[in-house]
Every structure is written in C-alpha cells, then in structure tokens.
Amino acid sequence: MEHPNYPEDACSISVAGVDADPTASEENVSIQVQTTTGQVWETRCEPLLDSSHDIVRLDCVGQADDEFGPWVQRTTPMPGDPALTTAQRRR
Hints:
Largest sheet: 5 strands, antiparallel
Helix content: under 10%
Structural class: mainly beta
Order of helices and strands: EEEEEH
Strand content: 35-45%
C-alpha cells in the first residue's frame, strides 16, 4: 500500500511547508486531512525538483527509515484550544 493509514472519511485538507530552516529553498511538505469525525491525520512529502528547481511532483511514499509515507493521527484540536506555536507545528 503506497499510503498506509490514509483515513477513508477525509473531508478537508491543509498543505504547508515544514522545513525547520527558514532559508531553505526545498522545504518538506506536510499534508494534513481532517475526517468527518474531526480527527486530524498527517503525512510528510519531499518535493522533487526539475533542473530549474520547480516542483514536478511530491514523494510521499518514503522509506522505512524516514518521515515520509504513512499517515499518522495527530492531536485533534477541541473548540477553545489555544493556537499552536511555530515550534509545535514543526513536530
């Protein structure tokens, strides 16, 4: 399975760069989905670039020893929870 643990009832999506180095030009990408029951799931992807440094596709499959690939459940926010800090979002 290329995308293990992908939630079948995903209904919204968020995509963001997550590189810890703000000067990096090739950020990793976080893709988060929210399910119809409010759960939040995330996977990380590596952008694959062409010779002009344009993104041609994302590698979200990964290998067993890296952070890319399987979908993992994240803490589901509750109404009234404080906003996450930048450091918390990069975990």
